[in-house]
Write a structure and sequence with these properties.
The protein has 116 residues and is of the alpha+beta class. It has helices spanning 27-34, 69-81, 101-113, and strands spanning 42-44, 49-55, 61-65. It has a 3-stranded antiparallel β-sheet, covered by helices on one side. Strand 1 and strand 2 form a beta hairpin.
Length: 116
């Protein structure tokens, strides 16, 4: 089915489709891969998060979920609107610190999104 999580069912705190079967992908890889993906960037209204889909060189289907400045800013605004004390992120060193102009813009946008 289109846009259905195809990860094997690995129970994790009651969720039938967890990231336990997945792996982490650096943001630089995501930004390069999304443009050549099957789907382009898709948006999930429930998670308020972007994702995309692609097939690898052997034809296996993959779905990649990630955060971008828009999704991060929505999460940061939620935290602020509820009077919570802060927000954290999984792994800031997965951003692209290569020094390329586009990478610098993307990385700066991600960090700025944490401040609503």
């Amino acid at each position: 089915q289109d846009h259905v999580c195809s990860l094997p069912q690995v129970p994790f705190r009651g969720a039938p489709c967890s990231d336990a079967a997945g792996s982490q992908v650096p943001y630089a890889t995501i930004m390069k891969q999304v443009n050549s993906s099957l789907s382009g960037v898709l948006w999930d209204e429930i998670q308020n998060a972007p994702f995309y889909e692609y097939k690898d060189s052997v034809g296996q289907f993959h779905q990649v979920w990630f955060d971008d400045p828009h999704s991060i800013s929505l999460k940061a605004a939620y935290v602020k609107s509820r009077g919570l004390r802060g927000i954290g992120m999984w792994n800031g060193n997965s951003l692209d610190y290569s020094g390329e102009a586009v990478a610098e813009q993307q990385t700066e946008a991600m960090w700025q999104a944490l401040t609503p």
